[in-house]
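Submission checklist for the structure archive. All mandatory fields must be present; incomplete records are returned to the submitter.

[x] Identifier: Glycosyl hydrolase family 5
[x] Organism: Sinorhizobium americanum
[x] Residue count: 124
[x] Sequence attached
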Amino acid sequence: MISAVESARATRLSNAVAVFSGIDKITGRITTFDVYIGETVQFGALQVTPHVCYSRDETEAPKTTTFVDVDEITLDRKIRRIFTGWMFADSPGLNAVEHPVYDVWLQSCKPNSDVPAPDTAAKQ
């Protein structure tokens, strides 16, 4: 009986890269960017730091999630946390980053990126 339950449970895949999109509401420009888990990427006045990024095998129903911190760099150069929590690629509005100028949402997770990993880039 346990094996039947185990096989029915979807396999969660841990990924090294979270793919986000962000919009600058002033210009209307949308940017897509890769962020390695545990690293921080700046988008406008926001700093995005994913801690995990999970997806499922291609044979299963899609479910892509990330646990992320989003900080704002204020005009007086202070860092203020504006979001900590789970983002869901299939429901970007569920846990949205609320900011007057920028929106950021999860697109996908992937095992690697064309962008060099931070320690690889430092060695070049």
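[x] Structure attached
Curator remark: The first strand starts at residue 12 and ends at 14. The CA atoms of residues 38 and 80 lie 18 Å apart.
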